[in-house]
Structures are given as structure tokens and as C-alpha cells.
Inverse folding.
């Protein structure tokens, strides 16, 4: 009878210890939960660190340059690769009355950050003194007098999490994050298609 009792105690202890053994699935779930509880501040810090890392890169394994003609004065798109991973895209469009710059940053092949800069010139680029000495108000093109608007859009694990804009509130059009996310993703898809086109 003592042997049976001892045998059951050993089996019970063995099974109890198995329940408490961490398995790979539990470890992965815990890691996933830790990732989900990162604060917005921690995520933004991670995105900024990635931005700094990419912009400090001097030697790219591949760089592709494409001309753009979606604006009156043309433009250019640059695609930067490190070990066959797309890290950054810059896209600039020039016009007679301004220019638009967009920069796209990636982390582990996922969109991480978009920087947009819109520059509205004080006058069209043709309003230069040498060509137009008789402009009535005497105001000529001066790039330093341009109005500049900047928008920073943050993505984490392919999700749009935050946007910061320098556009004055009275000029800002209120759009939902969902609509803004759609606009940004469509812009990115458009510029990625340009890379695939032949010159």
C-alpha cells in the first residue's frame, strides 16, 4: 500500500511540475504581450532611433533614382537599399509656385515613418527681378519667404499610430486617422510603382 501511495505522489508531483514548465509558446505569448504594452512614447522613441540610424547611413548597397513628371517642373524619387532591404524613399516634386518633399522610412520591411514638407513660394519662380523689373508691388520670388508646412506620420508594426502637423489649426482640414492612413498608404504604393517602371 505504501508503494502505491508513493507512486501516486511521484506522478502527481511530476505532472504538477510539467504545468509550471514554461514552453516556447508561452514565452512567445509573453513577448507578444510585452510588445503590445509598449507605450506610445516608447514606440515613437523606437521610430526616431530607426530614423536616425537610416539617416546616418553613408554607404547604401543600392540606390535607384527615377525622374518624376507629375508636376510642372518635374521631380525625382530615390530608393535606398541596405542588403536588398528597402530602407528609405525620398520623393520631391517641383512646381512653379512651390515644392513637395516626402520621405518614407522602413523598419524590418515595414513602414515606420513618413515626413512630408510642403513649401509654398511667396511668388511664382518666374517673378525674379532680372526678368520682371516692372512688378507693381515690387515683391519678387524669394525662397526664404516661402510658407513651409511639415507633417510627421508615425507607424508601428504596420499600424498608423500618430501624426504631428505644423499646419496652423485655422488652415487645417480635419480628417479621420483612417482616411489619413489611406492617403499615406496610397502615396507610398504610387511611389513604389515608379521604382518598377523602366526609364
Amino acid at each position: 500500500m505504501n508503494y502505491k501511495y508513493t507512486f501516486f505522489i511521484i506522478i502527481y508531483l511530476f505532472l504538477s511540475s510539467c504545468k509550471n514548465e514554461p514552453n516556447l509558446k508561452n514565452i512567445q505569448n509573453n513577448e507578444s504581450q510585452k510588445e503590445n504594452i509598449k507605450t506610445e512614447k516608447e514606440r515613437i522613441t523606437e521610430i526616431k532611433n530607426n530614423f536616425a540610424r537610416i539617416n546616418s547611413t553613408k554607404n547604401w548597397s543600392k540606390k535607384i533614382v527615377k525622374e518624376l513628371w507629375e508636376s510642372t517642373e518635374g521631380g525625382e524619387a530615390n530608393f535606398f537599399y541596405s542588403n536588398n532591404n528597402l530602407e528609405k524613399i525620398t520623393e520631391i516634386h517641383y512646381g512653379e509656385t512651390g515644392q513637395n518633399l516626402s520621405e518614407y522610412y522602413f523598419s524590418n520591411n515595414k513602414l515606420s515613418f513618413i515626413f512630408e514638407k510642403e513649401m509654398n513660394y511667396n511668388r511664382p519662380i518666374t517673378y525674379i527681378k532680372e526678368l520682371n523689373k516692372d512688378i507693381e508691388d515690387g515683391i519678387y520670388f524669394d525662397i526664404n519667404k516661402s510658407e513651409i508646412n511639415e507633417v510627421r506620420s508615425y507607424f508601428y508594426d504596420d499600424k498608423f499610430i500618430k501624426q504631428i502637423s505644423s499646419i496652423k489649426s485655422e488652415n487645417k482640414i480635419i480628417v479621420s486617422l483612417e482616411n489619413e492612413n489611406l492617403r499615406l498608404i496610397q502615396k507610398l504604393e504610387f511611389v513604389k510603382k515608379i521604382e518598377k517602371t523602366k526609364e
In short: The first helix runs from residue 2 to 20.
